[in-house]
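dumping this here so i dont lose it
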């Protein structure tokens, strides 16, 4: 019987971007209608869809060997000492920036700092962490769990403030609210059950997944450039090219021309291509990378 690694995929807002990341890394995961166990094209992996908020305890108790969840939910469920954090994976549906939990109040609220929450009522989904955060600062406030529409509670005056997650803060501002301060920055973590890491098969599989997921994310920020360069212009062109070590240079059939290839940050390309062209490069090609190890 084939050994299997039990892998948790976050269900909800991160689901589609996680499946996309795994596909780039080399695994095709296909959700099934009304089924929490997607199929995957790897006989050594068994997948389950689990809410990010519930992932860490399942990994900690061994129901899952490996899972992806936010650092915020690891802290919220207080299992940071019970799981092994393999690596950070900064990705989301809309951006590649870590999310942040922020203290939000109405624009005209007298609350200007975290200390002003003394005796106030706060609503959030991140209840345990928020209570500990306030207690560490000697602030006594009522913190209640929000079942959703958290921002609406402060808009309607049901609470004095909310602690909500955001990427850019634009939605919060659009609702006429104000961010007082950040209380936690979070990103996705790949976490493993500690006993699973002691099993040679599972450890090998976990390390394989971690390596390929990280290589896929690394590749998203890079592109490859390939061009033809007259031999007499080579030094001028190479001087413009950033590279991990040095560009790859090969002779073409015409010995007066060379093929030059390198990897650069994607954000550099719009300025780099005109400079390369001015330096004599021709036939410049840009193409995306799938993995970068």
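and the seq i came up w/
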């Amino acid at each position: 019987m084939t050994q299997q690694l039990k892998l948790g995929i976050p269900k909800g807002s991160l689901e589609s971007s996680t499946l996309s990341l795994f596909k780039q890394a080399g695994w095709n995961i296909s959700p099934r209608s009304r089924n929490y166990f997607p199929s995957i094209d790897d006989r050594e992996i068994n997948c389950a869809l689990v809410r990010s908020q519930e992932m860490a305890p399942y990994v900690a108790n061994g129901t899952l060997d490996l899972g992806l969840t936010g650092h915020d939910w690891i802290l919220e469920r207080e299992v940071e000492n019970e799981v092994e954090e393999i690596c950070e994976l900064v990705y989301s549906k809309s951006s590649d920036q870590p999310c942040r939990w922020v203290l939000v109040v109405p624009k005209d609220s007298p609350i200007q700092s975290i200390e002003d929450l003394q005796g106030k009522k706060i609503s959030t989904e991140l209840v345990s962490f928020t209570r500990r955060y306030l207690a560490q600062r000697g602030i006594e406030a009522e913190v209640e769990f929000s079942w959703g529409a958290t921002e609406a509670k402060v808009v309607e005056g049901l609470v004095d403030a909310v602690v909500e997650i955001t990427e850019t803060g634009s939605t919060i501002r659009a609702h006429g609210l104000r961010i007082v301060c950040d209380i936690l920055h979070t990103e996705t973590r790949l976490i493993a059950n500690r006993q699973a890491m002691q099993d040679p098969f599972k450890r090998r599989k976990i390390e394989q997944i971690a390596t390929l997921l990280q290589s896929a994310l690394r590749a998203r920020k890079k592109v490859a450039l390939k061009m033809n360069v007259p031999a007499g212009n080579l030094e001028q062109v190479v001087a413009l090219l950033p590279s991990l070590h040095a560009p790859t240079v090969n002779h073409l059939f015409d010995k007066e021309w060379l093929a030059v290839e390198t990897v650069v940050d994607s954000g550099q390309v719009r300025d780099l291509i005109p400079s390369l062209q001015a330096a004599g490069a021709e036939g410049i090609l840009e193409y995306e990378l799938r993995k970068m190890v």
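The longest strand covers residues 177-186.
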